[in-house]
Structure formats: C-alpha cells, structure tokens
Specification:
The complex is a heterodimer of chains A (469) and B (260). Chain A is of the alpha+beta class and 469 residues long. Chain A has helices at residues 3-16, 18-55, 90-97, 131-136, 176-179, 198-206, 217-222, 257-267, 303-312, 320-363, 365-373, 378-414, 432-459, 463-466; strands spanning 61-65, 102-117, 120-129, 155-159, 167-169, 192-195, 231-238, 252-256, 292-297, 316-319. In chain A, a hairpin with a 2-residue loop joins strand 2 (102-117) and strand 3. With 260 residues, chain B is α/β, with parallel strands linked by helices. Classes of the chains: A alpha+beta (469), B alpha/beta (260).
Chain lengths: 469, 260
C-alpha cells in the first residue's frame, strides 16, 4: 500500500470520530504544553546565565586577581584556592599575555568612587576597562550613546541603568530606597564630578578623619582638611532599560582604563594613589596595580589547564567555565524536575491514546477483517493504526506547541520580561529545537501508545468479517 | 481443462468441550477454470468451513488445498494475505462495504492494497461499476443504497482485482428473493463474460441452479455433484458428453463412497 493511501485512511478514520479524537488530542495538547512550558522556564534561566557569562567575557575568559588593589564594594566571589603573591601590574599583564594558549590579557581596575551632580551624590563602582573589553561587554546602550573616546579631555563614563539607585540627595541623605523616586539626573548631559577618594571626601565634609578613614584611610589621615580633588567627567553612554530591568551592567560605571590610569598617575604624581598598594610607611610602589586581569584563552578546552598554569605563577584565578559547569549541573536538574512534572501529564495522555485506539479497534473488528480478506497486508494494518495514533500525537503536539508559545508570551509579558524576579531576559524561552523535539516526542508517545493496539488489530482474525451480522 | 482448485482429503476438526466435531470429513474435489460452482448445504453442514479453507481464512486439520498450484495449508498468514491480494476476490453476505467511502472508493479499495495509484484505480473501479449497472450511484455512500445495490458494489469490488477465483459467501443471504435473482443473474453474466472462476456457498437449492456445477454437502462430506451444464447440453443437443469426463469420474467416485 502506498504511504499516501495509508495516510488518507488513517486521517479518514480519525475524522470519522471527531469528538473522541478531539478529546484524545486534548490530552496530548495539555501534556505537550506542560512539558514545553516547564522546560522553557529552565531554558530561560539558562539563557540569562549564558548572557551574563557572555557579558563577563564569555566561556574562554579567566579572571586573574593578584594581591588586593583598587577597592571594591562588591566581593567578587571566587572559590580559587591559595593566596595571590603578586600584584597585577603592566608587567604581569605582559607576562600573562605571553603564556601559551592566551589570546589576550587585559587589565581591569575597579574603584569605589563618588559622583557629585546637581544636588545628588552617588556611590558608584567605577570599572576601568580597555576599549576592546568595553565593547566585548555587549552592552545594550540607549540611542546616542558612545563608547569612551580615546584621548578625550575628561574621563568619559558609561552608566549602568541601575546607577540611579545609588544616588542620594545632599543634605537629607535620602536615596531611591527611601523615597522610591528615581533621582532626576540626565547622565548624558548633566555636569558631573568624580571623587576617587571616598574617605577623603567624607573627611573633608565632616572635618573628621578618625572615624571614616579605615580601609584606605592613609590618604584621608594625611590630608584631613583639604578636600580631595574633584574631576570633571561626563557621561558618554547609558545602558538601556529602566530601573526595573536588571542586567549584568546594572550597577557599574565603565570608563577607559588607560584614561583613568593616566589621570590617576598625573594627579597623584609622587603620592599614593587611593586604592593602590603602599609600603608599610604609606609610600607608593613604583608600579601601578590593577584589581584584576581578564585573560582570554584561545580555546575552551585549554581554559582549565591555562587557569592552573596561571595559578602556579602566583595569581588567583576564576573561570566562567567552572561557574558554568556547576550551574549547568543545577539547571539540568531543574529542567529534569520541571520536564518530569510535564511528562506525567503526557504519560496520562498516552494512556488516553491507547484507550482510544483499543476502543476503535473493537468497533472496527469487522472492518479490519474485511480489509484483511480483501488482501490488506498485516504490515499495512499495523501501520494504519500506528499512524492513527501518531496523528493524534502530531496534532496534539502541534496545538500544544502553539498553546505553549502563547503561554510563554503571557508569562513573559506578565513578569515584564523577567525583570520582576530580578532576571535579565525572558523567564520562559522556547527555542526552535524545543518545538521540534516536543513535536517528535508527542508523535513518538502517540505511536508507542498505539503500538500494542495496532499489534492487536494486526492479529485479529479475518473470520470475524465472514461471520454474519 | 486447467484445474484452479484441487482439494484432497480435507479434514477439519473442532474441539467442543471434550468431544471433537468433524466439520469436514474427507472432502475431495476439483474446480476448473471458468467454472461457476455452488456449494450447497444446510447450516452446520460444513459449507462455510470449506469456503474459509479455500480462501485461506482457516487452517485445515488435515489434507491439502491446492489453488492454482499453490498449497494453501503451507502458507503462513502473511503469505495467505498476499495470495488473496493477488488471486482472490470475495463477496460477503452482509456486503461489508466501508461506511465512510462512496461506492467508487469502496470498489477501488482492494487495488490500493496492491499499491496502485489513485487515478488508475478509480478508473478501473469506474469501469467495474458500469459493468454491474451502477452508473448512477457511483458517488453514493453505502447507507444511501439499497441492499441489492450494495451487493452489486460488492461484486464490482471482487471483480476489480481481476482475480483468478471469486469466493461468494451466501451473497444473497441478506436480500429479498427478487433482488437475489437480479444479483445472481448479474454474477452469472459477469463471470461468464470475464471468464472468472466463481465458488459460491449457499443453502438455497434454487439459487444454486444458476451454477454450472453444484456440490451438495452434508455433515462435512460431499454427497452429490450435479452438473447443470450437462443437463442443459443434453437438452440442447444430447451429444457433447466428452467435455467433462473428469467431472463425471469424480462424481462417480463420490457416489461410490456414498453407497459404501
């Protein structure tokens, strides 16, 4: 028998029992949709993780940290063992870039600073990166944004979209978290001043250096009265999104590391730069230390060995690959659990298919006998019933997928594309392969459920047709 | 004459509780190409069992069924289905048309089992429906047709495969006597025109009279073979007796056994 004829007979049989087919298909629809939606939630989480990793240098990146330099508000979580014995200096960067399998090595300088603008002051995390590194961040900037130009007179900054929450009103000291009002700052146009030495700023403000100058108080104690220098800076870019859409660049302010370094060295010529390591007597070293270096491996397979090598050189390392691996394990589990919940309903649907097929075979005993007498081969009879069951799976899978896409859209819409639960990107993500795989799976489940009924049909005696009635 | 069906020493035993019932008890006969044979007997005589065995729907307990040189008792189920597909047409008592297909599609159905394309099988089916005088009902569904019309579709469906043999199981059992006559005449005519071999099972002696030869079966044994052609020939010319020498001998054999 030809395929097209088999197909025609199978679909004709389904059309004959519309209500029953509809109900059986409905079961598959619910089953498929629950699997797809559940998995799409897991995938959404995974995707936001990937995006985060992409922004922090991708899978081949190794973050190398030396002895503490710069100052950070946020503890950079890394579980690498051993203490670093060296600072990340220009020589160290040079050294790192000459290690085998290293594609590039770039420095990062992170400093906690203060920005003054209008009637606000804000604590910011200033992140100095090389221009290439800034571009690699893949930031989604608002229109009119530019990357910091090289050789600009003032330091040019790119603001994360959440920086607004870090500003406080002068005098009242009330910020976003107190007032729930976003400070009225035009990052791209307002006049801004940058203060690199937080402690000194407050010392000068309150004329009291004893309480404030703890971590990096060397500077503060020596220059108690004299306020630290303010630098004129201006914003060249702003990350797109409002205060509610979290992303990897949310809290950071980026600038060109070379410009930052030049500025620091010029302004603090001969004196200790805030955040820089000093000798015991408070004198600066001759070198300039960065807070970390971003090393890109040439291949993802070399990341691990390279990380180990750098560690033996006396640095602390952490890789995205490590992080990703452990996260992937977690996500696999989450997806298995979510998919399992969905699979239960598809399993129930499969029982429904088997039941429907059994019923229809009992009803059609005579008809099956007749076509057997007329010479329809056993294989074709089996195929016909398998295809009928497969058809139920296929239609259920297709409709189930459409339903899942709608549900996914609804979920993402309701949660404001993920920002409501502090995620960057959609909560539910349905890639094309998931659609394809779930369709195939639905067809497979249908056919598996229809297999034994089909065997039964195949084995029915043709004599049933001869008996009269 | 070419033998199409040859049955040798055929037994069929059914087990009913502890005792066994002999549905067929040593049946021997031959059917030749182009013959219209009727197997006549009361219900329970074993006539339906015999037909089932000829069509390969049931396995004999003992004995041989040879249809156009092929031993049916040796084929497995797949082989039997293939054999039916290639060589056998079937007419059912209760028509057994597929309810979701119109007359034309019903007739074309067996051809689709052979893998024939839609256009060519519908063309053949169309021709067959013309042959059975159903020109106006080609697009009718089975439930829109009378019993006689349905059975004519059944006849067309059996013929469309161009089978070597057509089996008919009480083809007029569900029809009134007038319609029965019509269908019988049609079958007789078509079989003659198309030179097909037809084996019909019936309990009605009157309908059996349409056949060339009639096998009477009682309690699983063939007790009498009538040759209607010979009667007719006798009436017509009273001469041509040579034609069916073998048939006569087989009749004699059966009669001898009967006397024993």
């Amino acid at each position: 028998m030809r395929w097209i004829d088999l197909l025609r007979m199978s679909s004709g049989n389904l059309r004959r029992r519309k209500l029953r087919t509809f109900l059986t298909v409905l079961g598959v629809v619910v089953g498929t949709a629950s699997i797809v939606v559940m998995i799409s939630l897991g995938l959404g989480m995974q995707q936001s993780l990937y995006r985060e990793i992409e922004q922090s240098g991708g899978m081949t990146a190794i973050t190398v940290t030396g002895k503490d330099a710069g100052n950070q508000m946020i503890y950079m979580g890394d579980d690498s063992e051993g203490e670093a014995t060296k600072y990340i200096t220009d020589e160290a960067i040079q050294e790192l870039s000459e290690v085998g399998h290293v594609k590039s090595a770039t420095p990062t300088l992170t400093m906690s600073s203060i920005i003054l603008t209008g009637e606000y002051y804000g604590y910011i995390q200033l992140v100095g990166l090389t221009p290439e590194e800034i571009e690699r961040q893949n930031m989604n900037l608002v229109e009119g944004s530019k990357f910091p130009e090289e050789g600009a007179a003032n330091l040019e900054l790119i603001f994360g979209n959440g920086v607004g929450t870090m500003f406080y009103e002068k005098g009242t000291d009330r910020g976003y978290w107190d007032t729930q009002q976003i400070p009225d700052i035009d990052y791209m146009n307002d006049q801004m001043f940058l203060i690199l030495d937080q402690a000194a700023y407050f010392d000068s403000l309150y004329n009291n250096g004893a309480g404030m100058g703890q971590g990096n108080g060397q500077e503060g104690q020596t220059q108690q009265v004299k306020p630290p220098k303010k630098y004129v800076v201006h914003g060249s870019g702003l990350v797109a999104g409002d205060i509610n859409s979290y992303n990897a660049n949310y809290y950071n302010v980026y600038c060109d590391i070379n410009a930052l370094k030049r500025m620091l060295q010029k302004e603090y010529a001969g004196r200790a730069i805030p955040g820089q390591p000093t000798t015991k007597t408070g004198k600066p070293f001759r070198f300039f230390a960065y807070s970390s270096a971003m090393v890109q491996a040439d291949d993802i397979d070399n990341v691990e060995s390279l990380a180990a090598e750098i560690q033996t050189m006396g640095y602390k390392v952490s890789t995205n690959a490590e992080y990703l691996k452990s996260m992937q394990k977690q996500f696999a589990m989450v997806q298995a659990v979510l998919g399992g919940i969905g699979a239960v309903s598809l399993f129930v649907a499969a029982i429904g298919i088997a039941n429907t097929m059994m019923m229809s075979i009992y009803e059609r005993t005579k008809e099956i006998g007749v076509i057997k007498v007329l010479g329809c081969s056993l294989k074709n009879i089996k195929m016909m019933f398998l295809m009928e069951a497969g058809f139920i799976g296929f239609i259920g899978g297709a409709v189930g997928n459409i339903l899942s896409l709608l549900m996914s859209f609804a979920i993402n819409f309701a949660t404001g594309n993920g920002s409501a639960i502090g995620m960057d990107g959609n909560i539910s993500y349905i890639p094309l392969w998931l659609v394809g795989a779930s369709m195939l799976f639905a067809v497979f489940v249908g056919m598996a459920a229809g297999y034994f009924p089909a065997l039964r049909a195949m084995r029915l005696s043709p004599l049933a047709a001869i008996r009269n009635g | 004459m070419e033998k199409v069906i040859e049955v040798k020493n055929l037994y069929k035993l059914y087990r009913v509780g502890d005792s066994s019932v002999r549905a067929l008890n040593g049946v021997n006969f031959e059917i030749y190409k182009g013959e219209f044979c009727a197997i006549v007997g009361t219900s329970g005589s074993g006539k339906s069992t015999l037909l089932n065995m000829l069509a390969g729907l049931e396995k004999p307990t003992k004995g041989e069924v040879i249809i156009s040189g092929r031993h049916m008792e040796q084929l497995n189920e797949d082989g039997l289905v293939r054999f039916r597909r290639e060589n056998v047409g079937f007419i059912f008592q209760s028509f057994h048309l597929i309810g979701t297909m119109n007359a034309l599609e019903n007739v074309a159905l067996p051809l689709s089992f052979r893998g024939e394309g839609k256009a060519s099988r519908l063309k053949k089916a169309d021709k067959m429906l013309d042959l059975v005088n159903l020109k106006k009902h080609k697009r009718h569904m089975p439930n829109q047709m009378s019993g006689g019309q349905q059975q004519r579709v059944g006849v067309a469906r059996a013929l469309v495969m161009e089978p070597k043999i057509i089996f008919a199981d009480e083809p007029t059992g569900n029809l009134d006597s007038h319609t029965s006559e019509e269908v019988m005449e049609l079958m007789q005519k078509v079989v003659k025109e198309q030179k097909r071999t037809l084996v019909m099972v019936t309990h009605d002696d009157h309908l059996a009279a349409y056949a060339d030869r009639v096998f009477h079966i009682i309690d699983g044994e063939i007790v009498k073979v009538e040759d209607n052609r010979k009667k007719m020939l006798k009436i017509q010319s009273g001469k041509q007796e040579t034609e069916d020498a073998k048939t006569v001998s087989s009749v004699k054999k059966t009669k001898e056994r009967e006397e024993q």
